[in-house]
């Protein structure tokens, strides 16, 4: 598991370099990706469903990204996007399209539903964490 997280760190760091993330933030992006993958694997190891593991990992990364954004004074997507990259459902989308192309429509539907569910959970996690931070920030400005 640790080896997987190390390779995820390297892969996400390479992604950051490829997409011209500021050089000082490349290791942070890689760390976020490795951490996300580690959380995901731990959730699966302890019997949490695929969807639950994705939601917990994405929510954890969204929370850390919001905190880092305020510390480093950078936009939170700078940390969230590389962080959540390892759990994006590319595998499911690929096999959904592949099975559709070869005529396996039932299997294709299964892969597409999985990809859409995971994508929605990732979006929901960002929405929830961002909303909590905005409400907290709004409350502080208005003395609530």
Report on the architecture of this protein.
37% of the residues are buried. The protein has helices at residues 2-18, 26-45, 50-72, 77-84, 90-101, 105-141. The protein is 81% helix and 0% strand. The protein is globular. It is mostly helical and 144 residues long. α1 (2-18) runs antiparallel to α2 (26-45), α2 runs antiparallel to α3 and α2 crosses α4.
Summarize the model shown.
The protein has 144 residues and is mostly helical.
Helices and strands in order:
Elements: H1 2-18, H2 26-45, H3 50-72, H4 77-84, H5 90-101, H6 105-141
Helix pairs in contact: 1-2, 2-3, 2-4, 3-4, 3-6, 5-6
Give average pLDDT, whole number.
93
Largest sheet properties: none
Rg from Cα: 17 Å
Instruction: Tell me the overall shape.
Output: globular
Q: List low-confidence stretches.
A: none
Strand content: under 5%
Intertermini distance: 44 Å
* Helix percentage: over 70%
Please count the helical segments.
6
What's the count of strands? 0
What is the N-to-C succession of helices and strands?
HHHHHH
Helix/strand/pairing category:
mainly alpha
